[in-house]
Amino acid sequence: MTRILLLFALFCSSFVFAQDTFSEKDAQQLIDTFFEGFHEGDTLKMKSVMAPDMVMQTAFTDKDGTNKITSGSASDFIMAIAKRPADQKWDEKLLGYKTNIDGNLAHVWTPYEFRFNGQFSHCGANAFTLAKTDNGWKIIHIIDSRRKDDCN
Fold this sequence. Notes:
The protein is α+β, with helices and mostly antiparallel strands. It is built from four helices and seven strands. The relative contact order is 0.17. About 10% of the residues have low confidence.
């Protein structure tokens, strides 16, 4: 009986320690869940992987050639998804994932192409910062670039 309890304890402890590791695959799944919600219009799914105070920014060059960085609120973004008209299709196709992880911090880089109702709109890259919180791993920051040229 003692051996059985010892084996059970070892099994449980290895399971607990295994849960502490966060892999590139885990990071990719977090990003995929975010975009599944984005494409489906499922804001609850999106919020399940977002930190409540997630920061959103965009880096771009305006029509006059001025480099800009804008900040937006995650709650406004979620509201835009929730209120998106049914006849609009927003399709952001991720072209890859580059992931770095260190302890409770991860960074995921995803080049993308964005189409609006099937028509090419722009391309760029998303940079996601993920962090381990008391509620699991969450997206704490997203910054994306946007451009219409040099999208190959």
